[in-house]
Design goal:
The protein is an alpha/beta fold. 46% of the residues lie in helices and 15% in strands. The protein has 16 helices and eleven strands. The termini are far apart. Bound molecules: nicotinamide-adenine-dinucleotide and magnesium ion.
């Protein structure tokens, strides 16, 4: 019986994970669940899955959850805050941690799971983008098993040799082909994007996801973060990672070898496939996802991305090449800009401008420690807030 902790259980990935777990009660039990503020949903999950522990964001949310659980006669221990998240991620009673908190808030607990040598199922790409080498070192030093949940990286993992060493050349790997749907604005003229609303940006043509990653998909910053994620997971340089637009989202990514072979993983766009793959790895279990009907799909299209239409993709490549804390600056500025867009404080096309200005203003340094990374993260957030303040008060970014 594998005992699972889900960080971010009420989110899109968390709910899909519980859906897969519920299909295999003989293999998996839930040790702990976390949510930030959706207390009612978490209470319902606790009733169904009976975890030993549940963690929320604040004391008030904890009191509310505690009352709901006691009323149902449940004895789940309720805690709150970052230390409690780290505790459920590293507890001796859990084997596997699904890291599905969105954004930098997921870094500390995901790192705690890696340091404790857990099987880490990584959905929270922002954690790896921020802390890259430090995170991979923690995995290496503790003997943790790191399995990618992001559909592209899970596909690449499946297309690489089983004992891949993170040295592409040693396995004949020449390139990784990272597919991208292009999001809801792929065919829109750039100058019509000024007026798009948060709801339009979140209406992804193929995937159903949380709001932050949905906006990231619309700007293609999501693909940019995934390029950096791929670099750390697979040891490929920026030059060895090629982004390919593939609107059908059926080919989830590919690996190109020196003999001319290109291996791909295909499937319906449903996150339960990579979740089930990583949960059971190296075995296979049913995920609830319908079998792919290629004749019904009919056509698979591929095209090169337009870096002018999607400046966030260019910014991410630039941050990867710069190295050090540059990806952490990029990520923090993006989180603040996306939140401002979702609050209707800035327009869609100002997201990339805020990020570019933060990157231009702040010199990046060495990512020598988590403290150094968090300091840069804080500086980038403050700079982004200031730039957004200037925009909303009518001053244009320089
Ligand atoms: P979501 O917004 O649906 O859910 C986020 C979860 O994190 C929720 O449970 C929420 O309670 C929790 N959370 C939010 N802020 C928090 C905070 N400050 N402290 C603690 N917990 C907090 O997001 P999602 O779409 O499920 O994405 C989760 C992660 O997985 C992201 O990093 C995303 O990039 C990645 N991912 C998602 C998908 C997808 O299909 N949804 C695909 C690939 C990767
Ligand atoms: Mg992805």
């Amino acid at each position: 019986m594998q005992r699972i902790t889900i960080l971010g259980a009420t989110g899109s990935i968390g709910v899909s994970t519980l859906d897969v777990l519920a299909r295999h009660p003989d293999r998996y039990s839930v040790y702990a669940l976390s949510a930030h503020s959706r207390v009612d949903e978490l209470a319902a999950q606790c009733e169904q899955f009976k975890p030993a522990r549940a963690v929320v964001g604040t004391a008030a949310a904890a009191a509310q959850l505690q009352a709901l659980l006691r009323a149902k006669g449940l004895r789940t221990e309720v805690e709150y805050g970052e230390q409690a998240l780290c505790a459920i991620a590293s507890a001796a009673e859990t084997d596997t941690v699904m890291a599905a908190i969105v954004g930098a808030a997921g870094l500390a607990p995901t790192l705690a799971a890696a340091r404790a040598g857990k099987k880490v199922l990584l959905a929270n790409k922002e954690a790896l983008v921020m802390s890259g080498q430090l995170f991979m070192d923690a995995v290496h030093d503790s003997g943790a098993v790191l399995l990618p949940i992001d559909s592209e990286h899970n596909a690449i993992f499946q297309c690489l040799p089983q004992h891949y060493s993170r040295v592409p050349g040693a396995s004949g790997v020449t390139r990784i082909l990272l597919t991208a749907s292009g999001g809801p604005f792929l065919k829109r003229a750039v100058d019509t994007l000024d007026s798009v609303t948060p709801d339009e940006a979140c209406k992804h043509p193929k995937w159903s996801m949380g709001r932050k990653i949905s906006v990231d998909s619309a700007t293609m910053m999501n693909k940019g973060l995934e390029v950096i994620e791929a670099h750390w997971l697979f040891g490929t340089t920026a030059e060895q990672i090629e982004v390919v637009i593939h609107p059908q989202s059926v080919v989830h990514s590919m690996v190109s070898y020196n003999d001319g072979s290109v291996l791909a993983e295909l499937g319906n766009p449903d996150m339960r496939t990579p979740i089930a793959h990583a949960l059971a790895y190296p075995e296979r279990i049913a995920s609830g996802v319908a079998q792919l009907d290629l004749a019904q799909v009919g056509t698979l299209q591929f095209e090169r991305p337009d870096f002018v239409q999607f400046p966030c993709l260019a910014l991410a490549f630039k941050a990867l090449k710069a190295g050090g804390t540059a990806p952490a600056l990029l990520n923090a500025a993006n989180e603040v800009a996306v939140a401002a867009f979702l609050d209707s404080r800035i327009g869609f096309r100002q997201i990339d401008r805020v990020i570019a200005q933060v990157m231009q203003e702040l010199p990046h340094g060495a990512a020598a420690s988590i403290a150094a990374v968090m300091e840069q993260d804080g500086l980038a957030r403050a700079a982004a807030q200031r730039i957004i303040g200037n925009i909303t008060s009518g001053l244009r970014p320089q």
